[in-house]
Amino acid sequence: MIKKAVIPAAGIGTRFLPATKAQPKEMLPIIDTPTIQYVVQEAVDSGIEDILIISGKGKRAIEDHFDRNFELEYMLENKNNGGVLNEIRRISDMANIHFIRQKEMKGLGDAIYHARLHTGDEPFAVLLGDTVIDSIIPVTQQLADIYNQYQQSILGVEVVPQEKVNRYGIVGGNNISDRIMEISNLVEKPTVKQAPSNLAIAGRYILTPEIYKALEQTKPGKNNELQLTDALKILLKRENIYSYTIEGKRYDIGSKIDYLKTIVEFGLKRKEFSKEFRAFLKERLSSKN
Ligand code: UTP
């Protein structure tokens, strides 16, 4: 059973500057809901009871978002704004959320290493704080179900177009079933020629505690950062790792264009204004300027 989740959210967010100069990328709203709230919701919907958010410089807003705000609650109560009040209270009650600070942003691998005392000798889920996955069954639940079968680390992957493999960590190996692969090879941002497949790691993982030993032996890689993919390569020498092709649509808000696409897609799905928004987009696209 997977009961703990780690959400790395300490990254600098250089691709989204200047918006991320004084506010966390993970708090960028998808319409009215911060990205990381969707991520926490996915963990909760997957049966996770305990969440550790890896926080860092300039990330206080994340802590405040999941904390009670009595002044705001009092004001909403006086205004008789019950619906919003309930939602505001619900956010601070979503899960048992803890925070730890990554003092220097030394990469995703280093961020996860900060969770070792918290997760101890239990397997745990990792959900990147800047990646939302829209699905019927929450993706962390999908991966936890596969973990229960294999009791080994499971990487959530998705098919990406061949020309985009150079943006992701790509896995290769032997297919066990339609969606499950026993991994024999992992390459970070390969060229099209080097890529062992077109299955890209999608920001969701179940990791065994052995990952911490692997991280201790990992040398800083690209940008002098501790790369999780490099640690997974070390782990692969000791344990089996499986990939699972997730059922769902991934939205990575870390780049400006992907953020824009995410907002449009979520806007089109929002019942209260989807009709008006669709008509606006249609009109906008058919006009010449
Ligand atoms: P990214 O690879 O998108 O890095 O991190 P980044 O620093 O946030 O963004 P850019 O590349 O500079 O624009 C993926 C996830 O891992 C976290 C980020 O907060 C994000 O949720 N992360 C990354 C950390 O927690 N610590 C790190 O040192 C790096």
How would you explain this protein's 3D organization?
The structure is a single chain. With 289 residues, the chain is an alpha/beta fold. The chain folds into two domains: 4-254, Spore Coat Polysaccharide Biosynthesis Protein SpsA, Chain A, CATH 3.90.550; 256-289, no CATH class. The chain is 35% helix and 24% strand. It has eleven helices and 13 strands. It has helices at residues 35-45, 60-65, 70-78, 82-92, 108-113, 116-119, 139-150, 210-216, 228-236, 256-269, 274-286, and strands at residues 4-8, 29-30, 33-34, 50-55, 96-101, 124-127, 131-134, 153-159, 169-175, 180-188, 199-207, 241-245, 249-252. The protein has a five-stranded mixed β-barrel with strand order 8-11-9-10-12. It has a two-stranded antiparallel sheet with strand order 2-3. It is globular and about 60 Å long. The protein starts with a strand and ends with a helix. Uridine 5'-triphosphate is lined by residues 8-16, 25-26, 54, 102, 105-108, 110-111, 128-130, 254.
Keywords:
single chain; 289 residues; alpha/beta; Spore Coat Polysaccharide Biosynthesis Protein SpsA, Chain A; 2 domains; 11 helices; globular; binds uridine 5'-triphosphate
Q: Beta-strand percentage?
A: 15-25%
End-to-end separation = 55 Å
Say how many strands there are: 13
The description of the largest β-sheet is: 5 strands, mixed, barrel
CATH level-4 homologous superfamily of the largest domain: Spore Coat Polysaccharide Biosynthesis Protein SpsA, Chain A
Helix-strand pattern, N to C? EEEHEHHHEHHEEHEEEEHHEEHH
Spans of at least 5 consecutive residues whose pLDDT stays below 50 are: none
Bound small molecules, by name, code or SMILES, are: uridine 5'-triphosphate
Compute the gyration radius: what is it?
20 Å
CATH class term of the largest domain: Alpha Beta
Count of separate DSSP helical elements: 11
Binned, the helix content reads 25-40%
The overall pLDDT, averaged over residues, is: 95
Shape verdict: globular
Q: What is the name of the CATH architecture of the largest domain?
A: Alpha-Beta Complex
Annotated CATH topology of the largest domain: Spore Coat Polysaccharide Biosynthesis Protein SpsA, Chain A
Any idea how many domains?
Answer: 2
Strand order of the largest sheet: 8-11-9-10-12
